[in-house]
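Dear support,

We are seeing what looks like truncated structure output for some complexes. This example has four components. We would appreciate it if you could run it in full and send us the complete token output so we can diff it against ours.
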Amino acid sequence: MSTIRQYLANRLQQIGINDYFIVPGDYNLALLDQMLLNEHLHMINCCNELNAGYAADGYCRANGVAAMVVTFSVGGLSAVNAIAGAYAEDLPVIIISGGPNTNAAPLHQLLHHTTGEHDFRYVRDMLEKVTVKSVIIDDAQTAAYLIDDTIMHAVRHQKPVYIEIACNLSGYPIEPPQALSFLNVNRSDALSLEAAVSCAASMLNNAKKPALVAGVKLRPAKATSAMQLLIDVSRYGVAAMPTAKGFIDETQKNYMGIYWGAISSPSCANIVESSDAYLFAGTILTDYSSTGYSMVIDPHKLIVANIDSVVVAGVTFNQVLLADFLSELAKKIHLNTASYDAFKRIQGEADMYQTAELNDPIKIRNVFSKLEKMLNADSTVMVDTGDSWFNGARLHLPKGCTYEVQMQYGSIGWSVGATFGYALATKGKRRVISCIGDGSFQMTAQEIANMIRYQANLIIFIINNGGYTIEAEIHDGPYNIIKNWQYSELIKAFSTEENHAWACQEKK
Amino acid sequence: MSTIRQYLANRLQQIGINDYFIVPGDYNLALLDQMLLNEHLHMINCCNELNAGYAADGYCRANGVAAMVVTFSVGGLSAVNAIAGAYAEDLPVIIISGGPNTNAAPLHQLLHHTTGEHDFRYVRDMLEKVTVKSVIIDDAQTAAYLIDDTIMHAVRHQKPVYIEIACNLSGYPIEPPQALSFLNVNRSDALSLEAAVSCAASMLNNAKKPALVAGVKLRPAKATSAMQLLIDVSRYGVAAMPTAKGFIDETQKNYMGIYWGAISSPSCANIVESSDAYLFAGTILTDYSSTGYSMVIDPHKLIVANIDSVVVAGVTFNQVLLADFLSELAKKIHLNTASYDAFKRIQGEADMYQTAELNDPIKIRNVFSKLEKMLNADSTVMVDTGDSWFNGARLHLPKGCTYEVQMQYGSIGWSVGATFGYALATKGKRRVISCIGDGSFQMTAQEIANMIRYQANLIIFIINNGGYTIEAEIHDGPYNIIKNWQYSELIKAFSTEENHAWACQEKK
Amino acid sequence: MSTIRQYLANRLQQIGINDYFIVPGDYNLALLDQMLLNEHLHMINCCNELNAGYAADGYCRANGVAAMVVTFSVGGLSAVNAIAGAYAEDLPVIIISGGPNTNAAPLHQLLHHTTGEHDFRYVRDMLEKVTVKSVIIDDAQTAAYLIDDTIMHAVRHQKPVYIEIACNLSGYPIEPPQALSFLNVNRSDALSLEAAVSCAASMLNNAKKPALVAGVKLRPAKATSAMQLLIDVSRYGVAAMPTAKGFIDETQKNYMGIYWGAISSPSCANIVESSDAYLFAGTILTDYSSTGYSMVIDPHKLIVANIDSVVVAGVTFNQVLLADFLSELAKKIHLNTASYDAFKRIQGEADMYQTAELNDPIKIRNVFSKLEKMLNADSTVMVDTGDSWFNGARLHLPKGCTYEVQMQYGSIGWSVGATFGYALATKGKRRVISCIGDGSFQMTAQEIANMIRYQANLIIFIINNGGYTIEAEIHDGPYNIIKNWQYSELIKAFSTEENHAWACQEKK
Amino acid sequence: MSTIRQYLANRLQQIGINDYFIVPGDYNLALLDQMLLNEHLHMINCCNELNAGYAADGYCRANGVAAMVVTFSVGGLSAVNAIAGAYAEDLPVIIISGGPNTNAAPLHQLLHHTTGEHDFRYVRDMLEKVTVKSVIIDDAQTAAYLIDDTIMHAVRHQKPVYIEIACNLSGYPIEPPQALSFLNVNRSDALSLEAAVSCAASMLNNAKKPALVAGVKLRPAKATSAMQLLIDVSRYGVAAMPTAKGFIDETQKNYMGIYWGAISSPSCANIVESSDAYLFAGTILTDYSSTGYSMVIDPHKLIVANIDSVVVAGVTFNQVLLADFLSELAKKIHLNTASYDAFKRIQGEADMYQTAELNDPIKIRNVFSKLEKMLNADSTVMVDTGDSWFNGARLHLPKGCTYEVQMQYGSIGWSVGATFGYALATKGKRRVISCIGDGSFQMTAQEIANMIRYQANLIIFIINNGGYTIEAEIHDGPYNIIKNWQYSELIKAFSTEENHAWACQEKK
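Here is the complete output from our reference environment:
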């Protein structure tokens, strides 16, 4: 026999989790005890639940799945913004919470860590809005089914889930978990797939100068290699949305840069928008990713391949999975280098960061120029929301170098935790380099202490421009000025004899 | 003419707000501009929204009402745990958020700072679970009505409310606010009040040794002075629940200490539980406040006066407001000092902190002993969740000294922000002294920087016991051990030439 | 001691209920047994729950409050459309349902009459959307409080409420109900009331030709007599919205008819819309009541007195109750007969139904002409949604004659049940005469049988125009043609030896 | 180009709908016009929406999928109980409603057929609780995707869905629907399936006297033929749950009767419960289907095959589809006739209805005896909730004869509409014979008129026992006595020259 919490711990291990992020609390201590017994799982303490959530987000980006454990209500509600971010960014983060004993509600008890009323389901009800499934495990007989089904939802939809386990139930004996592959059971409708591919191929093969745009949903659709196949076969010019930077190889011949409406890489928007047929694969257009809907796209020339449907010039094909569509399309598409050839002709002077010399003054441009030189196949660049988005977008990434940005949700402070989680997930394999503005950094700064504790071995550039500079550019006011800190002193406060970090600071 | 945001700013001023707590974001900048124009309102920047929420909580405890302004979704969801806490603790905190333009949903636009889907109402829907009213202002004609009605809900129920204003609407011209007293319109049912008072008076006047217990709902019911009147008239022995510590004068003759089940002040539980009639005024019994339901209370001897109902020996009287009940009861009650006399007889050696000498080693007991000596009529003691609860409960408060604890919700880290807010609300009048464990402190530590920026002039004792000690006492494990920091170095990092703080640290 | 169900039964009696409407089911039988023991309450069986809901609606219109009892889920969900209608029409109907035993959920049992899943709260969650409070009584200690509080919500807001009582709990002993007046505790804000009255009086007193319009919210605001006072004092010309027909005396001197935009009574809209100041008291303007927003109203000349706020030329005064406003306004208003004088001048030929002779062919116009002659001070006219709205609006009601229409919700079939309920509430005092189209009648026809059983002594005119004629006028199609019935044969089917009715039918 | 409503009509046709059930209303008339243009779809008018919902339920049982069209709010909420029933009974009924214009909410208009407030989403929110997906189509670009996706949800989960189309949008031009097979995309996890089959086979093959029980989920799982295969291969004795009566051939050799706890067919429970291993396929045990949890089942001997998981002696195998499991199990199972052999040995005198002679008095037993003789391969028996359940369960069904009961939801009155819908779906192929108590019949009696109008050619036995007899057996009281009707007169009222029915009535 197993226990419910052991069952859960085993499942987490089986789906590929090594590190999980926690803040302990009296509703989850027994659960944590059990998870500690699983030697494949490493517990990572975080300073608070929001940071733990961001760490799980970062871990998930590198590892494909992540888990965090919090206590009831005060924990779950503190993490909820990170979970909403994971939802927006298509990350299957599993948030696990202890919950009230199963007899508390029937006995009409009032409990601490609650709103002081009799309804204890409000945390689940709130989490349900930003997860793809949120459950309370309050019955031993169905616990195994519910745990598995909830995790399968996370995997299938690439979205977060919430699992709350009644405190008194987590140690209840149940049968141990059985073989289960946790693969996505969703598949394309054969008729619809064939029709969509045929229609799209016809449109693209008849075009003179077709182009490709890679979008952020390629990752949750597990379609990046199918996309690469299509790029290789078609030799169309290809651009990436800013949210998808790093999802396709920037060093390949056909690559044209970032397509971001009015602020695209030089010449890139020009070629995309003047094509007579463009396939947008896994894109999602918001006010930000389209720079205020500034894109000039003709719906009659447009194919959008969504995560489970394709729209060809306004005609919708349902239940067509993105990876299936791209793979099948690659079989039918004709090679056509016209758009990339045109791009090469008009491409202006390179947009690379000019080479900065050692003694040049520290300006943003110089910093990113130097940072670019540090990058190699084992690097990961993370940039927090704000100015860094624009500087990061212009970086040239070497093959193998990955790049992470939280552009859909755009919650400042995200990158501190996310950097921590990503670094743990890739420890010994990758070096994470993060660029964080001072406003963002102050949100979540304390997690630096745990980066030191767990020796995450990462590099952070804090870009201290005295406040919320991106907002100041949009709309300035005194609210954008924040308290200045001695950031390098902060690292001293977090360092102790046992473990420490190195910091330096350039005077303004 | 006014604008919607001006209207709101004026209302905030009228209900007595001077400082409001913000984190700016692109959905709220224009709103903030307008609030800055109101010279009676002072904008306080916080590092993050959770801290801002805790600051509003603290401000509200001192000022009676508080406001905070956040940006859409990333702001509101980051603050939601503080709002849930304000709900649990009966604090009318008004959380104001910018929201999507009114045409975004009809145009089926996708937006940043959202989950990437078409529903933009999820923030309101989530906040609704932990507020007494949550509204989206998306229509100019009803804006004035809705703003007032929502604020009135906060005042009437002494609970938080959420007001989201569509970005494009906040500058829309509307007529300025009119005279409105924002008084609670709720009143007692005359028949029911009379019956309840008569029934309770009869029971108490017939008892030999009646006693009083003061509870946490006295504050939201605005019934503390009515309670004092009843104490004065009846001369019954009176105890306070730990959540209500500081609500009644601890130096008055009848005071018997903290009634907290098994861990009450010496002799206090003994007297309460052996009384033949006890009136619990504004109490709420949870697993914590009753120490695991360890109280020995006979329902036949019990009168519970709730916020809007009274139960006398199991008989319910509805629509009886707490302040009305206590005032009317005071008119009918006979003087009876028996319970307090008994208390004096059996009261053992005082539980005061033994006098600590200057060079005594730093131990918890000594710290609190010294702290007790610092207190005067202008002091406020705040204690964060954890060990400090138990140490704080034993403090003897001088008359006028106030005391704050978040014992219903018990979210660790609360006190950092709450101390900041309370100190601003009482600046120049009170000195706030806070006791915070290291685990709690790490949650929200960065807000120290803004205490320095805004010169809040408070004192914090960080009690560094190497982790979550209260949990370790309940249930120990490696999760309770946290990273040690150099806390006094932290203060250096937050201090700059313009403004700074003083810190020292005792070596372990 | 009492039981929970006895407590509830007593409360129903105390708030003035004599008849309650039921459909029995295994979740409510024990509850019904108890209600039968209360000799002041008469149980009325209905054929189905929708009809029972409509009957409660009608009963409530006459009696001020109504109750119905249904079984779990299959009952509550069958009634929900009638409850939504009661919500729309501001009727405090109390719907009471049996519910699952309190141990069913903790034992994770599956139950009949449910969706076959473990959540049993869905009925309450659904009803919550169309009531002002929906509760599940699953705890004996708080049952008395919750029952009273829920009923008080119905009374205060003049909206329906839902009370579900766990089957096994309804017989649990609790203390009997205490004195409680169930009055609305809401009151006007004194400052705001004074400001609103002063502002409105100034505007009206300065106008040359001010007019009054009576709206449907006068009833839930209990403001009809205050309105009459204002009419008497001001002598302004007064019109009624079609939804408020019958709320003011149509025989009084100042009365101008129905104000209904483009389809108002002759000359009425002309006078209202050409006034230089108009007070709309308790009006609500929908697409129907404004005939597609065809009213020509200048917001600068408009005072709208809502149920708890007043808007004078765009300036909002909050927390001003309608009855208080009208009463106070009556004290300050100057007599001014200009608008009514103007009305008399332009008033064209009377819009009365021409006198029909005995042998005239049966046409709608003739029917209503004869019907008008039947009316006296003890009559009540009810008209179902559809053509009858327009014919009914033109009726001249003698003083004392009441009139009912469900124009906000407009659910056809409503009047069959509503007529039944109204007739029972006024049995021995009033004669109800209803006009129902064949399409409406077929929806809910079977309830005729219970009118016969309970000898409701009412008169129904079924106007058989072969389908949904009002729809055919808007937009015709074969869907508007319905099966013809032999309606007078139907009455035979429902009549038995014990009790029977009389019917006749004119051949087409 | 197509329109949105044309798109929807085409999809309904493509998924196999011929008849759809409607009540017209101003929000759906344009939609109905369009559906009338599709010559493959036949519009069926119903008297009210509850009846239309029951008719769709019955149609769906015969046809696999069904649709109904209602108007906004007054329609949807009147139908909601039938939809909840369809949910409980696993029937993919598509309920389509017209909805407010897309500009009504942005313009803050108030509308008829609503609660009189600004939120128009409440109908969807309520329907969401009793459907597997509920959507509002308020955007043309995503309409095609959303319609298809919602219908796919109905098919995949075999549950109802709700589609609301904004009135002004339904005629908007969009591209026509593309090829799509609407097959369930869900599939078993290969690892888990193999493990489950292996584990179950081992348990069954090692048992001495294994038995099978067929449950109601076999139908939504589309697993009845896989079940028959397993029966054929294993030759185990097989029983059917009362909810699954008619799902397996009652004339086959292994058949043992109805397994229904304490009220099973003679000897049947005896054999099932004394087996040393039993496979329950697609069963669901509620208080009713288990007769108050009276079954004596040993979890260690039990295999439960659910719709997407299998539990073998407490061990859970997830993501195993019922049909896959049964088919694969059939490949591994050994023939074992021991349980059926035992059944034959102990089987007492047949429980058949004794042969009734022509002139025997009319008693329930005689009626069902005669009814049984009427049955053949083209018959369908429907029994409404109540006494008829028990009489129906004892019928011996000839091969090919189908049987329908709504035992999970058990909403009386269901069978009138359901009979109508089932008869239309099988017109010219089957004769439906229904047994309905008088209490049930009165709920929904008027739909008889439309059976006549559309010549449904069915037979109804109204069993007039003077009230709610099943309740009277459980718990009697005056509420169980209902008004007597002259039921055969009713048929006259519904018959006209154009179309009529035949009725007779036995005097009591």
